[in-house]
Amino acid sequence: MSHHLETINRLESEVRSYVRNFPAVFTHSRGARLIAEDGTEYIDFFAGAGVLNYGHNNPDIKAALMDYLAEDRIVHSLDMASAARAEFLERFEEVILKPRGMDYKVQFPGPTGTNAVETALKLARKVTGRQNVISFTNGFHGMTLGSLSVTGNAMKRAGAGVPLSNASHMPFDGYLEQGSDTSLELLEHIFDDEGSGVDKPAAVILETVQAEGGVNVARMEWLKKLADICEAHDVLLIVDDIQVGCGRTGPFFSFEAAGIKPDIICLSKSLSGFGLPFAVTLFKPEHDQWSPGEHNGTFRGHNLAFVTATKALDYWTNDELTKDVERKTAIIESRLGALAERIPVEATLRGRGFIQGIAFDDVELAGKASAECFKLGLVIETAGIDDQVLKLLPPLTISDEDLEKGLSIIEEAVTKVANDASPDRKVA
Please, are residues 216 and 145 in contact by the beta-carbon 8 Å criterion? Predict the structure, then answer.
């Protein structure tokens, strides 16, 4: 074991997790590659849990950051005015909001995803005067108390140490029956029935693709019907696009194909484009009912992240990145769909765009496959309540060569663990 890893194991809390699954000391990174201190290179199908959509050390974004720092430009400014702040807002309006016909105010909460969610929940309750929030089975929205209250994972919820209240959980699309609108019929019936025992909510919050929950994909028609139900009942719709936004599914926002315009949108992870902490909460102007300073934070609006996020928006001046994601998604789905059918265990491929998952009936196989991938030079995580899903999150900008090589490693690793689990039905 390296000296650095020994130091981490000795001094860092037992709460650490990823280092246990990927026991290497990483020193450098470029594009879709991670380099360890012993010189070993790994293809990265994890991308910082969706933070590095544009790759590690993206050269154009890095150049903008280096130029800014070299000029002694302001780094920290709370929410005082800065040129970097204004330039991000102008660019975001020009490249993202106006082309989509979206009229939203922008709030900079604390710099992480859970801060964006907490802001959304607090604002929805303030605007409506109601306390309850509807969330969905297997949803994940963060680790602070408000975000945990609308998160489904029992282990993570238990870590709160206090009751998690003012939230009700409903079945996500496909939770009761694949391809059925039963979950929405139930939700609408509860909204209409004063005997349901569920308080009328301030908001409904969801991910369009549940990432940590196991790559559970909501159908576009389901999302559209959900938005209609919320509008009809004067309930705000919050879309948590933290992990599956910023192009992860192809378009910038994951909900675009549904034709909906949520009341509130949460973004973080890849928003800065460079791995710097950065989050925004977007909301329709009529919901901007804050008093000055009513919600704040020391790092609300990090100028370095403004700079890198502004540069990252260059990718969205046209649809080239979206089309490239769609092209490479077809490669992923073709190869891994065939793999899931070929192996001698029950497995299915599911996902949208560059978030894909192989779900195994034998819940131990995804973890074993992830470990085998790491031995072969690929970093890839698991997801789902039982970690039963091998989850792909490659950078959107990954080269065809690295994508194909990573998929070959998955094919080799998954075939091995599947054959080991079912030796009487081995496949080549």
Answer: no
The whole-model pTM stands at 0.97
- Enumerate residues 6+ apart whose C-beta is below 8 A from 405: 43
Are the CB atoms for 263 and 233 separated by under 8 Å?
no
Name the fold adopted by 64-316. Aspartate Aminotransferase; domain 2 (3.40.640)
Give the type of residue at 332: I
Judged by DSSP in three states, 273 sits in coil
What percent of the residues of the chain are helix, what percent strand, and what percent coil, each to the nearest 5? Answer: 40, 15, 40
Domain locations in the chain?
A: 64-316
Decide if 205 contacts 134 (C-beta within 8 A).
yes
pLDDT, tens only, 10-52: 999 999 999 999 999 999 999 999 999 999 999 999 999 999 9
- Give, in order, the Cα–Cα distances in Å from 119 to each of 111, 144, 269: 11, 12, 16
Residue 78 is classified by DSSP as T
Angle at 23 between CA 380 and CA 351, to 5 degrees: 10
Instruction: Yes or no: say if 2 and 10 are a contact pair by the CB < 8 Å rule.
Output: no
- d(CA 123, CA 13) in angstroms, rounded, equals 34
Question: What tokens were used for 114?
Answer: 């859970």
Residues 206, 238: Cα–Cα separation, whole Å: 7
326: enclosing H helix or E strand:
helix 320-342
The per-residue pLDDT for range 119-162, each reduced to its tens digit, is: 999 999 999 999 999 999 999 999 999 999 999 999 999 999 99
Do the beta carbons of residue 235 and residue 160 sit within 8 Å?
A: no
Half-sphere exposure of 207 (CA within 13 A, CB side): 32
206-216 pLDDT, tens digit each = 999 999 999 99
